[in-house]
Design brief:
Blueprint: H1 11-23, H2 30-42, H3 47-57, H4 61-70, E1 82-87, H5 90-93, H6 97-108, E2 121-126, E3 138-140, E4 143-145, H7 153-158
Parallel strand pairs: 1-2
Antiparallel strand pairs: 1-3, 3-4
Bound molecules: FE2/S2 (inorganic) cluster (FES).
FE2/S2 (inorganic) cluster (FES) binds next to helix 5.
Length: 161
Amino acid sequence: MEFVFDLEENKDYIRELKLFMRENRGKKGLLMDALHKAQSLFGYLPIEVQRIISEELKVSLAEIYGVATFYSHFSLVPKGEYNIGVCMGTACYVKQAQQILDKVEEVLGIEVGQTTPDRKFSISATRCLGACGLAPVMMIGDDVYGRLVEDDVEEILNKYR
Ligand code: FES
C-alpha cells in the first residue's frame, strides 16, 4: 500500500526540517537527529522526506534507508489512528501469541509493520508489555487486552472500527 505524501500540504514542516539541518550543520550524529526530527514532524519517514535529508546532508538514500529500517522507532509508513501491539515476549509467545497476531493480520488484511489504507489501524509485534500474567496480551492504543483467544480478536477490533 502506497501512501501519498503531499509536499505542498507539508511545506511548513519541510521548511522547519531544513532549517534544523542547516542550523546544526557539521554536528555529530546529525543524520539521526534529522531522522528523529522528521519522524516527529511527519509521523513517519516518507521517501520524499528521506530525499530531502539526503540532499541536505549529502548522505546517500541507501544509508538513510538503512538507518531508518534498523531502528524500530522509525517508520516508513504512517501509523494508523490505532496502533495494535501484539506482544511477542516469551510469556505471550508460549501462550500462542502468534495465533493472535495471525488473526489480527487476517481480520485487517495487512501484515505487521503495515497500516490499513484508511489509516485507521497499524500492527506491530512488541516486546514484553509488562503484563505477563495476562498472556497473551495485545494493546490497542492505551487499552490492554489479556488472556486472549483467537475468537476474541474480531469482536475487539470491531469496537474501534
Ligand atoms: S511477555 Fe507478553 S506481557 Fe510479558
